Amino acid sequence: MRNWLALLLLVTGLPATASTFGFSLDNDFFLGLDRHYTNGLRLAWLSDARRSDSGCGFATGLCALPGISGSNRHQAWSMALQQMMITPKDITRTTPDYNDLPYVGFTHLDIGFYGWDDRQLTGYGFRLGVVGEDSGAESAQKFIHRMIGSDPPRGWSQQLGPATIGGVYAFQSRQLYRQHLVDGYAWAAHLAYGADVNNFMTAAKVAGFASFGHHMTMRFIPDFTGLSTGAAMVGNTDGESRTGWSVFAGFLTEYDGYSYMERHAPDAYDLDTQRWVANLLVGAAHRWSAWQLIFTLRTSNSLVKHLTAPLTFGNLTVLWSLP
Fold first, then answer.
1. How many domains is the chain partitioned into structurally?
2. How far is CA 61 from CA 57, 126, 205, in A?
């Protein structure tokens, strides 16, 4: 746990020249639930954008990746410390429920690199982290449950792990349409696709969404939920200080080729996971001065075939842009 506290200090102690800081919370208590994917935390930082015309803002090898450099393109990089936890529905049990999910805690560092223009965002990144006691998920969930007055979880002694997690991802988001209406109103549509290859959850993904708002930012990806990357901050802070708002809706379809939980849970568990998972999300954002508040609801079919209840949770994200 001490190693992850050191990483937390690294993230929160980044130089004041950084353009955007973000805090994000996933939790099913937004919907009065407490089961399965029960909590996720993220502290993130996005660097100042720079024009790639003025030279490579990263290591030369990264700028050679498709979509990172080019005329009239911007570059930035992000760093995020993320934690997520999975629990069974009944957290008061001290013994495993083999008909439900095991306890899983996953904490990792995510570093991403991005290139974009007015029409397209391309990103690459890698994750490095741990599953198990060193993730700190047990302590985090017990603290949160004390804060909100919920039952303390009693089964973390049976959590999966320990294991080291690593992997890479790549994606692209394209603006399909954007129309400026009268008095600062506009709407836009985007399509995103990519792959996330790691030994916790490997998936290929396609997503689309539409946004409508007043003085809304040029967001490429509105999804801050789950294992989303720092790419969600790109375009959300465009340097304007005026008040604005937006609403958005979208879908995410993913093919899950590998699940740490399925491969490493004891044989007594019935964890035949779904390969195809369909997600729907809706949300709203409000910006004032240097701050932005974003709330999202997300639901999908269950990750495990024999569990019929949908996986539903909310996300609250706060962004702060430095001048």
1. 1
2. 11, 15, 25
